[in-house]
Amino acid sequence: MRKINLSNFQVATSETARDINRRIVLNLIRTRQPISRADLARFSGLQRSTVSSITEQLISEQWITEGALGHAPRGRKPRFLHLNNERAGIIGVDVRPRRTTLALTDLNARILTQDSLPTPADPQTFLDELAGRIQNMRRSQPQIFCEGIGVGLPGRVDPKTQRLVFAPNLNWREVDIKQARTVDLKGPLEEATGITVEVDNAANACALFETWYGKHSEGVHDIIALTVSEGIGTGIIADGELLRGATGLAAEMGHISLNEDGPVCRCGNTGCWEVYASNTAAVDYYTKVTTGARADRGAQDGSAPTFDSLLRLCELGDPKATEAIDRQAHYLGLGVAMLITSFAPSLIVVAAEVTRVWSRTEPIINRIVAEKCQQPFSTRIIPVDELAHPRLRGAIALVLQKHFVAPSVA
C-alpha cells in the first residue's frame, strides 16, 4: 500500500492519462513485437483511435517503426509495429575503478559498437576523455539517433541531484561524503554531448536491467542484483520499487561490517563485507598465502595477479588459487544469507566474474546460506553471464526505464 504524500503530490490530469497509455502501448510493443494496432487495442483495452494516435506519435519520435504487412481474412491488412532499432539507440557507460566501458545499443539493448578507456584518476579528466569517446562513437553510427546516455557508477548517487556522493573504490579524492563533497557527472556530460544523461549506482542499474530484460524475473517484484568486482554492490527492488532511501545511500550492503576487528576498508570502516568477499579481497588473500609460501623457500617476488588470472589458476586446479576462491565464496554466502534474512527476495542475480567458476562456488554459497538462514527460504540465486555485460546493459536500462516505467502521480 503506497501512502499519498500530501506535502508533495501531483494530481492526475488528462496529460497524465495520456502518458500512462503511451507507456502501456510502448511496453506492449517492446514485449510482443511485431504487433498490429488491432492487437495493441485488444491487449491494452484502449480505443483503436487512442492506439492510433499514440502509435503515430511514437513513430514521429522514432521510438517505433512499421514493418511487414500481416494477413487478414478480409478487409485491410494490418501493418506490424516494432521498436525502431535501425534509427534509435542508447549509449551505456560502465565505470569501474581501473577501466570504463561504453557501448551504443539499440532499443532492445543489443550492442552495436563498443569502446573502453582506462579510468582516469580525476573526474574532470574522466569527463573530458569520456565525452570525446562518446562523440567518436556517435560519428561511427551517424544513422542512429541517441535517446540518452546511462552511466553506471561504483558508488552511490543522490537520487535528486544525480551527483556522485560515495565511491570509496573509485578513489576520486573529490568525493567525500563526510565533508559533503560530491561530483556532478550529469551536467557536464549533457553540456558536452547535447544528450540527456541518467546516472545511478551500477548495482541499481543491474537490478533495473534484470527487471526489464532478465530471463528469470518474469512476474517477480522482489529482486536483488549483487555485483561483485573491486567492491560489492547491491541493487534492491522491493515490491516493484527500487530501494534508494532519502539520500540514495540505501542498500550499501558491501559496507556493512561483518567483523569490527577486521581489515580496514576503503570506506574507513573495518571488517566490511567487501574486504572479505570482493575480487580485491580474493587477490589479496591469494597474494598473502603465496608470498608466505615463497618466503619459506627464500624466493619472494611480491607480484600480485589480476582476478582474471586468479580465476584461470583456479580453473587449472592451482591449490592456493582454489583456496582463495573458496574463501571468497564462503564470505559471499554469508552476505547472501544476510540479504535473504533482511529482504526475503524472490530472486538474487549475481553479476560477477566469479560466476565463471560457478560450479565450484555455488555449492559453497548454498551451503552457507542454508546454515545461516534460520527460516525456510525460496530465494533463487542465479548467476549472470559476464559475457552478457550486465553492468553495461544496466546503464542502458537507466535511460530505457524512464520511458517504460509507470509515471508517478502521487
List strands and helices in order, with pairings.
Blueprint: H1 14-32, H2 37-44, H3 48-60, E1 64-69, E2 79-83, E3 88-95, E4 99-106, E5 111-118, H4 123-140, E6 145-153, E7 156-157, E8 164-166, H5 186-193, E9 197-201, H6 202-213, E10 223-228, E11 232-238, E12 241-242, H7 274-277, H8 279-296, H9 307-315, H10 319-343, E13 347-352, H11 358-372, E14 380-384, H12 390-404
Parallel strand pairs: 3-6, 6-9, 10-13, 13-14
Antiparallel strand pairs: 1-2, 3-4, 4-5, 7-8, 10-11, 11-12
Please describe what this structure looks like:
There is one protein chain. The protein has 410 residues and is α/β, with parallel strands linked by helices. The protein folds into three domains: 14-83, Arc Repressor Mutant, subunit A; 88-209 and 393-404, Nucleotidyltransferase, domain 5, CATH 3.30.420.40; 219-384, Nucleotidyltransferase, domain 5, CATH 3.30.420.40. Helices cover 40% and strands 20% of the residues. The protein has helices spanning 14-32, 37-44, 48-60, 123-140, 186-193, 202-213, 274-277, 279-296, 307-315, 319-343, 358-372, 390-404; strands at 64-69, 79-83, 88-95, 99-106, 111-118, 145-153, 156-157, 164-166, 197-201, 223-228, 232-238, 241-242, 347-352, 380-384. A five-stranded mixed sheet has the order 5-4-3-6-9, with helices on both faces. Strand 11 and strand 12 (241-242) form a beta hairpin. Helix 1 (14-32) packs across helix 3 (48-60), helix 2 (37-44) packs across helix 3 and helix 9 packs across helix 10.
Helix vs. strand class: alpha/beta
Instruction: Write down how many β-strands occur, each being a DSSP E stretch of 2 or more residues.
Output: 14
Find the CATH topology of the largest domain.
Nucleotidyltransferase, domain 5
Number of domains: 3
Overall pLDDT confidence: 87
Largest sheet: 5 strands, mixed
Rg is 23 Å
CATH structural class of the largest domain: Alpha Beta
Low-confidence stretches: 294-302
Name of the CATH homologous superfamily of the largest domain: ATPase, nucleotide binding domain
Q: Which CATH architecture of the largest domain would you pick?
A: 2-Layer Sandwich
How many H/I helical runs? 12
Q: Considering DSSP H and I runs of 4 or more, what fraction of the residues is helical?
A: 40-55%
Which H/E pattern describes the elements? Answer: HHHEEEEEHEEEHEHEEEHHHHEHEH
Widest sheet, order of strands: 5-4-3-6-9
Principal-axis shape equals globular
Distance N to C terminus: 13 Å
Strand content: 15-25%
